[in-house]
Each structure stands twice: as structure tokens, then as C-alpha cells.
TrEMBL record:
Its EC number is 5.2.1.8. It catalyses: [protein]-peptidylproline (omega=180) = [protein]-peptidylproline (omega=0). Keywords: Isomerase, Repeat, Rotamase. PROSITE patterns: FKBP_PPIASE. The gene is FKBP9_2. Pfam families: FKBP_C (PF00254). Residues 1-42 form the PPIase FKBP-type domain. This is peptidylprolyl isomerase. It is an enzyme of class 5 (isomerase). SUPFAM superfamilies: FKBP-like.
Length: 102
């Protein structure tokens, strides 16, 4: 699959056909066919972009390494399509990042 996605652009559609020996090894007998539409992608060398959209006037306590953090989020694609939300599911996330923030 990796080879079939090299050079693809957002919005592009491809049919990727993988022969049995690449899909299952020497014992493979079935050809795999994937119809793929590229929706979005990122590169591990991309930087994280943070935009503060609201901060209370009085903010005496800031997060630090080792804190337990309880938060809500909306996860979207770049075009704004909602893919996950703790607001919609009414479940908050609690995470501890002992070695810093991920």
C-alpha cells in the first residue's frame, strides 16, 4: 500500500492492486484491490500549530510537566469536518504526561 500512495495529492483517487506475494507472502493466493481517495495527510516533520482562542483574564495556574490534564476537544479535518468530539460524546479526557506533553 505504501508504494501506491507515494506522490498522491489531496482529493486524488487511485486504484491500488497488490499482488498475492506482496499482500500475504509466498503462500498468498489472493490479489488485493483498494479504491483509495486521499482526504488528508501529514508529515512527521510538520510542526504543531497552536492558536489560543480563549484565555481567562485571571489565569494564576498553568499546566506543567507531570500534571494530570482534564480537557474537552473537537477533532476535525482541515476542511472543518468533525471526526471526533468529547463535547458530542459527553466524555472528557484525563491524561498524565509524565515526561512532558505529547
Amino acid at each position: 500500500m505504501d508504494e501506491g500512495l507515494i506522490g498522491v495529492c489531496i482529493g486524488e483517487r487511485r486504484t491500488i492492486t497488490i499482488p498475492p506475494h506482496l499482500a500475504y507472502g509466498e503462500e498468498g493466493t489472493a490479489v488485493l484491490v483498494f479504491d483509495v481517495q486521499m482526504i488528508d495527510f501529514h508529515n512527521p516533520s510538520d510542526n504543531t500549530e497552536v492558536t489560543v482562542t480563549y484565555k481567562p483574564e485571571e489565569c494564576d495556574k498553568l499546566t506543567k510537566k507531570g500534571d494530570f490534564i482534564k480537557y474537552h476537544y473537537n477533532g476535525t479535518l482541515l476542511d472543518g469536518t468533525l471526526i471526533d468530539s468529547t463535547y458530542v460524546n459527553y466524555i472528557h479526557q484525563t491524561v498524565k504526561y509524565p515526561n512532558g506533553f505529547a
